[in-house]
Amino acid sequence: MTPIDCDVMVAGGGMAGTVAALAAARQGATTLLFERHGFLGGAATAGAVGQFVGWETRAGRRAVGGIAAEIVARLEAMGGSSGHGHFIMSTGHRMDRVEYDTEVLKVVLDTMCAEAGVRVLFHCQLAEVARRGRVVSSARLLTKGGLLEVRPRVAVDASGDLDLMARAGAPFLGLDEGETLQPATMMFRMGPIDFRAFDGMDAATKAAIAARGVAAGTLPRAALHCSRVPGSDDGWFNVTRVAIDAADPFALSEGEREGRRQALAAARFITAEVPGCRDARLVSFAPQLGIRETRRIAGLYTLTGADLRRSAEFPDTVALGAYPIDVHHATGAAITFEELGPDTAYALPYRIALPQGLDNALVAGRGLSATHEAHGAIRVMPTAMAMSHAVGIAAALVAAGNLPAPAIDPATLRERLRAGGAML
Ligand SMILES: Cc1cc2nc3c(=O)[nH]c(=O)nc-3n(C[C@H](O)[C@H](O)[C@H](O)COP(=O)(O)OP(=O)(O)OC[C@H]3O[C@@H](n4cnc5c(N)ncnc54)[C@H](O)[C@@H]3O)c2cc1C
Predict the structure, then answer these.
(1) Residue range of the domain that includes 277
(2) 81 lines ligand 1 (CB under 6 A)
(3) Beta carbon of 185 within 6 Å of any ligand 1 atom
(4) 90 band by pLDDT with thresholds 50, 70 and 90
(5) Are 244 and 197 found together in one domain?
(6) Is any ligand 1 atom within 6 A of the Cβ of residue 160?
(7) Are residues 136 and 11 located together in one domain of the fold?
């Protein structure tokens, strides 16, 4: 196949990659976004997460706008979401969220990419990466038509697992003593649910039923966490837990099997035991296991839990986040959930998107340079989208100016982000 040249190549069309590609294309960069599935959204659609959480501080101050807010507005306009709301988590905390229909989201993202002129290549896997010194010079992609060589000016790795960075030989962060990768989850859809009865359960009742499920070995996670599919009586349940390193292809394959096994058992428990679910049956598994954590890049700065707790300020802040530290444990049924201050929004510096040792590469999404703990907060989709908005603009500036990515002036980035409705 004839090689393709482009300004910005984005690997992976999850929420991070899609937003980064949109932002780059809107700056005038020729942008190629490739994705192994036949649709965009990543964990949001293929993983069927079903809700965006962490838009605002506990006091209700909004921290995320820009392209992320546009996506919500489009979803609402197409009947794929009823917009911003709140719910009580299994930990008892009140959390803001936007529930969405995964199928409508796919169309929203298709439409926005088409409008912005992003060239999207579906059913396309990263095969190899060539590097010349500090520069990613080309990537070979496995497509339906064979191997395709892409020669980008700038490469953005938004593959979640950072496959592009791994193949380029970039350095990664490790886990500290006692830390393990967050487990994966097979989401599953059930319906019809009587949501008046389901939502009418108080926290103590929910917790007691979940504890029974855990004791019986049918609920891996001590929660009855469900996001409703807008406009329907179906909900996506987030209660399974698979401890794997999803960057290992064999472990990932085993994890898909184990996730479905757990989901079916959990669905039967829910039908039998949970108020409002007597008539509910398993409708579908998510198309793929939802992956919370794999590789994290060693960037020019590494965001820490301490930075979030004290709302550290940075000279190169390009996005804000408000979601607390939320770490699911690989063993046991619990999570560690640490709320930050009542009105805490924390800053994300540009440098957490910049891999050490590479001049024309950026990272977007859950592989940003953050400790395991800080990753537990910034991994949620509104924050990932806010940061990806910045990464996309930066990638376009790097391509246009033929500059190393660290040379981009954060003030210019912030100016363009504000022009695009971002909150800083
Ligand atoms: C079970 C679960 C529940 C969660 N709950 C919430 C929640 O309630 N609210 C919230 O906001 N966040 C939640 N999160 C976190 C959030 O969904 C993710 O952290 C976020 O979506 C990550 O986005 P991303 O674009 O970085 O990565 P991903 O969504 O993983 O996207 C990566 C994309 O790259 C593609 N890709 C990967 N490798 C390749 C390759 N080699 N070649 C081509 N394409 C490739 C993938 O197919 C995928 O589309 C949850 C996550 C999980 C797993």
Answers:
(1) 188-285
(2) no
(3) yes
(4) confident
(5) yes
(6) yes
(7) yes
**137 and 47 inside one domain:** yes
Residues 302 and 371 in one domain: yes
Strand pairing category for 281-285 and 188-191? antiparallel
Strand pairing report for 51-53 and 325-328: unpaired
Tens-place pLDDT, residues 398-421: 999 999 999 999 999 999 999 999
Tell whether 266 is covered by a domain: yes
- Report the alpha-carbon distance of residue 333 to residue 219 in Å, rounded: 8
Number of domains in the chain: 2
pLDDT band at 47 (very low <50, low <70, confident <90, very high): very high
Give yes or no: residues 142 and 194 share one domain: no
Same domain, 243 and 387: no
To 10 degrees, what angle do helices 66-77 and 102-116 make? Answer: 120
Verify whether ligand 1 is closer than 6 Å to residue 42 (CB atom).
yes
Ligand 1 proximity of 344 Cβ (cutoff 6 Å): no
Per-residue model confidence as pLDDT tens digits over 189-248: 999 999 999 999 998 999 999 999 999 999 999 899 999 999 999 999 999 999 999 999
The ligand 1 atom nearest the CA atom of 15: 25
pTM as predicted: 0.98
Q: Of 247, 267, 285, which marks where a domain is finished?
A: 285
Q: At what angle do helices 381-401 and 15-26 cross, to 10 degrees?
A: 40
- Residue 163 pLDDT: 98
Cis peptide preceding 152, ω within 30 of 0: no
**Which residue's CA is minimally distant from atom 14 of ligand 1?**
380
Q: Terminus-to-terminus CA distance in the chain, angstroms?
A: 43
Same domain? For 155 and 226 the reply is no
pLDDT digits (tens, 9 = 90+) for 118-173: 999 999 999 999 999 999 999 999 999 999 999 999 999 999 999 999 999 999 99
| 270 and 197 co-located in one domain | yes
Please give the helix or strand (H or E) that residue 107 lies within, else none: helix 102-116
Q: Which 3 state secondary structure label does DSSP give 338?
A: strand
Which one of 379, 388, 389 would you pick to mutate in the ligand 1 pocket, going by the greatest count of ligand atoms within 8 A of its CB? 379
The answer to whether residue 94 sits within a structural domain is no
Q: What digits encode the pLDDT tens for the residues 347-360?
A: 999 999 999 999 99
